Amino acid sequence: MLTISLCMIVKDEESIIERCLDSVLHVVDEINIIDTGSTDRTKEIVQNYTARIFDFAWCDDFAKARNFSFQQATKDYILWLDADDVLTTEHQQKLLQLKKSLNPHTDAVSMNYYVLLDENGEIDTIEQRCRLVKRSRNFQWQGAVHESLRVDGRLYHSDVAITHLPLKKDTDRNIRIYEGLKAAGHLFSARETFHYANELKSHRRFLEAINQYNSFLDSALGSAEENIEACLNLADCYQHLQDSTQATQSVLQSLLYDQPRPETCCRIGRYFMEQLKNKEAIYWYSQALQQPSTTLGIHKRAYSTWMPHLQLSMLYDRLGLYENAQEHNEAARRYKPNDKRILDTKKYLYQRLNKGK
Hints:
CATH architecture of the largest domain: Alpha-Beta Complex
Number of domains: 3
Structural class: alpha/beta
Order of helices and strands: EHEHEHEEHEEEEEHHHHHHHEHHH
Radius of gyration: 23 Å
Low-confidence stretches: none
Mean pLDDT: 95
Largest sheet: 9 strands, mixed
Number of strands: 11
CATH topology of the largest domain: Spore Coat Polysaccharide Biosynthesis Protein SpsA, Chain A
C-alpha cells in the first residue's frame, strides 16, 4: 500500500486547522506543516498532530512556499491541502481505498474540489485539481499567486472529493501581490494575466479587468476552459458597466473556443428571454440541460440543473403550456426542494392546471 505525506502551508489558522487535520489524520502517513509567520496558536495546535513543523519566511510567492513544503515530504506520494479544506467521512474512506488500490506507476491523481456550497450545504461549484502526486517525480509549482502544479505522465481521476469550508479570507492579499509584481516590472504570463483580471473584477475595477481579459485572449495561450471563463467574466464586467451589447458579444465569443458550456447556454437563453423571444430562449435553456458535463475547469452546477429547469418552467407558462411548465418546475424542485420561488410556482401551476375542474 502506498504511503502519503500531507503538505500544507499555513498562517494564523487556529480557528480551522484542527478541523482540517482531524479529517485526514488517520489517512496520511506523515504531516508536514509549513508556517509562514503565524502570530496566533496555530503552531501550538499543530504540535498535537505532528512534530514536522517548518518555518518559511513569507515572500509573497505561493509557488516558492508550496515547493518548499513538497521538499519536506518523505513518503511515496504527496497530498496537498489548505487549512480551510476538509475530507468528509465518505471521502476519507474513498482516499483510504485509493491508497490500497492505486497503481504504483501513477504519477498524479486529480480529485474534485467542492469550491462553494450553497445556503443549504449542497454543492454549488466544482473544480478538478491534482491533489496527490508521486514524490519522486519532483513536480514543481509555478506562479506567485493562483499557483499551479505542472504534472505529466500517467494521470488518474479519482472519485475522492475535498470540500472547501472557509471561515475568513484576505480579499486584498492576491491583488497586492500582483500589483507588487507589476510595480517591480514583472512580465505577466498569460495565466497570470488571466488571474490578475479576475482579481481586478472581484475588486470592481471593471475597465482594468476588461483590458487584462482582452490581453489574455489576444495572447492565444490560454486553455479552452480559461478562454471561455475569460469571455463570461468579460460579459459580467460589461454588464456592470451597463453595456449590454458588449456583454452579449462576449458571451457569444466564448462559443469560438469549444462546444457551448451550460453557463453559456443559460446566458444566451436569458438574452432571448429578456427579448420575449420565448421559443428561442427555450431552445438555449434546453441545450444547457443537454450539454455533457466537463471534468475540466470550473463547473457551476446551477447552470446544468435547477436554473434552466426553472427558466423553462417560466417560459412554458408564458406560452400557456402549463403541463410543460409544471414538469420543469418539479425537475427544479428535485435540486432545490426548499426554494421559495419554486414552491410558489408549484402552487401557482397547480391552480392553473386545476382551474375549472
